[in-house]
Amino acid sequence: MEKSLLTYLYQQIIPIYRHFDQAHQMDHVETVIINSLEIAKDYDVDMDMVYVVACFHDIGNKFGRNDHHLTGGLFLYNDEELKKYFTEEQRIIMKEAVEDHRASNDYEPRTIYGKIIAEADRDIDPDIVILRTVLFGLKHYPDLSFEDHFVRAYDHIEEKYGPNGYLKLWLETKKNRDGLNHIHELLKDKNEMKTIILKHYQNNKNNV
């Protein structure tokens, strides 16, 4: 990647994540970049495009969470700086990848770039999944009691990551498959789930 493009991404794009909720801060985008590049090694893709998609994948949170995948894709496509480095066709592919990365989408990503970012964004480490769920709850529902936070977190994780959850793995990465299986086991033990959720609740309730 050209140094000027990398400088732009790290000086102008990634810092935007500082303004998002704690589950989508700079550490999250940096993790997704690492995951994306690791997954992409096994495919015939343009690594610069993979990198850019990872940097922009949640940038739509700048305009609100509900349609962040759509607004983020458009933000990438219209970025004047990116037009210096990528063709119209490449920017359309990257735009579609950002649009397709959302876990709740009920359709398969249109390109390998969309599948890579979707898998990289999963980062299905059970402890991280639970932490991010708790942080989201504390941010958006600060007045709930712990019991209500527990119910909300457990139900969300079951709905998304459970055996019948809406999250789909579009590429078979061992890390995500193992993580998903681990979450399935945790969901069978509500007491263990409650212990983990309580730990993150107590550690973060005064920091959100």
Sequence-ordered SSE layout with sheet pairings:
Elements: H1 3-13, H2 26-40, H3 47-56, H4 68-78, H5 88-100, H6 112-122, H7 126-140, H8 146-161, H9 174-187, H10 190-204
Helix pairs in contact: 2-3, 2-6, 3-5, 3-6, 4-5, 5-6, 7-8, 7-10, 8-9, 8-10
- Which strand-content bin applies to the residues? under 5%
Secondary structure tally: strands: 0
- Taking pLDDT < 50 over at least 5 consecutive residues as the criterion, the unreliable ranges are none
Looking at the chains present, what oligomeric state does this protein adopt?
single chain
Q: Please describe the biggest sheet, giving its number of strands, its sense, and whether it closes into a barrel.
A: none
Task: Tell me the CATH topology of the largest domain.
Answer: Hypothetical protein af1432
State the distance separating the first and last CA atoms.
36 Å
Share of helical residues:
55-70%
CATH architecture annotation name of the largest domain: Orthogonal Bundle
| Rg calculated over all Cα atoms | 17 Å
Shape: globular
